[in-house]
Amino acid sequence: MIDEPADPRSLSVRRVIVELERHVATAGWDAPVRVFALVRTAGALERDPSLANRLPTEVIGFAQEDPDHLTAVEQEGLPQAADLEELLHQIAWPDSVDGAAVVVERTVLPPEAEAEMPDDPDVAAEWIERHPSRRDVRLGAAVLRSGEYCCAVRARDHDSDDSVAVGRDLAPGLVEGVGATLD
After folding, report:
1. What pLDDT sits at residue 121?
2. Which of 103, 123, 127, 171 would be a feasible disulfide site paired with 151, CB 3.0-4.6 Å?
């Protein structure tokens, strides 16, 4: 399922989240959250011409053809956090960063199963892990300061590049959390 954006920035943010989800998928499942700074490649090259010596030739070509082309820079040494929400509250980006992306794994249930979930968080976690309708998914969201965003979702039980759903409103909570790091 793919909804194609019409404007160049939306197309660039769509391309980068698809590339990031595929990149993260090469490491397999049961992985930690991955966080990326997004920079417009042409702008980064303008600010630091020596970057041209470190980027692949095809990336430089993409940047020359498309001023909205994005380069993702994975963030290492993330702060300790109890959960994704706490982690995102600890992240702030300098003005030189045009956007951010997060790729994270989650277990989801159909809405009818969520209504039956126990209130106690520890009991609920165990209940979810044993529920027959649970699905493991990898969610990705990329958000630009200018407002464009896109999501990607891959299910473990349909683990192939051609089964990744891509669209704007697939993970609204993740989009909101990533977007808040840009304020």
Report:
1. 82
2. 171
What is the C-alpha separation between 110 and 7, in angstroms, rounded? 33
* Radius of gyration of the chain, Cα coordinates, nearest whole angstrom: 18
pLDDT score at 45: 92
**C-alpha–C-alpha distance, residues 67 and 70, integer Å:** 9
User: Are residues 67 and 141 in contact, defined by beta-carbon separation less than 8 angstroms?
Assistant: no
Helices and strands: H and E segment counts in the chain: 7, 6
Hey, how many other C-beta atoms are within 10 angstroms of the C-beta on 170?
A: 19
E strands, the chain, in order: 34-40, 70-74, 99-108, 135-144, 149-155, 165-167
Burial of 119 (0-12, 13-18, 19+ CB in 10 A): exposed
User: What is the reported pTM?
Assistant: 0.88
CB 138 within 8 A of CB 105: yes
Provide the residue count of the chain.
183
DSSP per position, 81-126: -SSHHHHHHT----TT--EEEEEEEEEE--HHHHTT--SSHHHHHH
